[in-house]
Write a structure and sequence with these properties.
By secondary structure, the protein is of the alpha+beta class. The protein has two domains: 3-70; 80-239, Umud Fragment, subunit A, CATH 2.10.109.10. Helices cover 23% and strands 18% of the residues. The chain is built from eight helices and nine strands. Strands 2-1-3-4-9-5-6-7-8 form a nine-stranded mixed beta sheet. It starts with a helix and ends in a 12-residue tail after the last helix. 24% of the residues are buried.
Length: 268
């Protein structure tokens, strides 16, 4: 894997678009797709802008993608230390309803607006009210939100381009352990879609795990103090326009064995 492929893997894991990366670093558009070498100057800029990115892993492939001393990309760092305490019991900052109706709409957050939503749009009435809305049958007694999925960290069940529908959890401690949740953490500037687990020793820390995490640790676990989570949405449904995969070669092999079959054919 080349240095630039590793950078792309890091951006995909963090939910950072190429355009956001170019804006943050000041690099020219297309840098990640060019054959030019990384260079020491650009490496310094990347590490300065993304301090949790492990330069040893980037240059040599040794160690983990994220700096171990960060304990995760979401637990330490000065921007987290300045964050005030958040009450665990709360309501969504903004909801919308149709006129003369009591049921709430389901707000849809497209991938291109996810960064704006996470960065504070979820608290901005004008931002939220401009989002597209829809209704789904059988979803009642709660507030629901739909997020377009971007990235491959949950490919086992939720694919890039799918739409995750989640129910708002009004007490952040009452999440379903092992279930998939969408988490809004403004300090990270990206939507996190992960399975959530309780820390075995600290009740105020949760562990976020990708379904695609494996022995090579492509998508490392993330440890988060629950005080930094502004919203958490528990899995309710997935809307997918992706065609399910099918192994045609395997099907042909099965046909070659002439398996038993039931025929409904018109007699000639």
């Amino acid at each position: 894997m080349t240095d630039k492929e590793k950078i792309l893997q890091f951006l995909d894991y963090k939910g950072i678009s190429k355009n956001k990366f170019y804006t943050t670093t000041g690099f020219s558009t297309g840098f990640l797709d060019s054959g030019n070498s990384l260079g020491v100057d650009k490496l310094r800029i990347i590490i300065d802008k993304y301090p949790d990115f492990n330069p040893e892993w980037l240059l040599t492939g040794k160690g983990e993608m994220l700096r171990s001393e960060c304990d995760s990309s979401a637990v330490s760092g000065s921007k987290f230390e300045k964050r005030p305490y958040i009450n665990y019991n709360r309501l969504p900052a903004v909801v919308t309803v149709e006129s003369n109706e009591e049921e709430e709409n389901i707000l849809a957050v497209p991938a291109k607006l996810a960064a704006g939503y996470v960065g504070g749009g979820f608290m901005d009435a004008s931002f939220v009210e401009a989002l597209p809305t829809f209704r789904l049958p059988y979803l009642r007694n709660g507030t629901f939100r739909c997020f377009e999925v971007q990235g491959c960290s949950m490919e086992e069940g939720i694919k890039d381009g799918d739409y995750f529908v989640g129910k708002f959890i009004d007490n952040i401690r009452n999440f379903g352990e092992g279930r998939i949740h969408a988490l809004i953490i403004p300090e990270l500037d990206s939507l996190l879609l992960k399975r959530v687990f309780r820390h075995p020793k600290d009740q105020n820390v949760i562990i976020l795990r990708s379904d695609n995490n494996n022995i090579s640790n492509i998508y490392p676990d993330i440890y988060v103090d629950i005080r930094y989570i502004s919203e958490i949405w528990s899995f309710t449904a997935v809307i997918s326009f992706n065609q399910p995969s099918f192994d045609m070669n395997n099907f042909k092999e099965i046909l070659a064995t002439k398996p038993d079959a039931v025929y409904y054919l018109e007699e000639k």
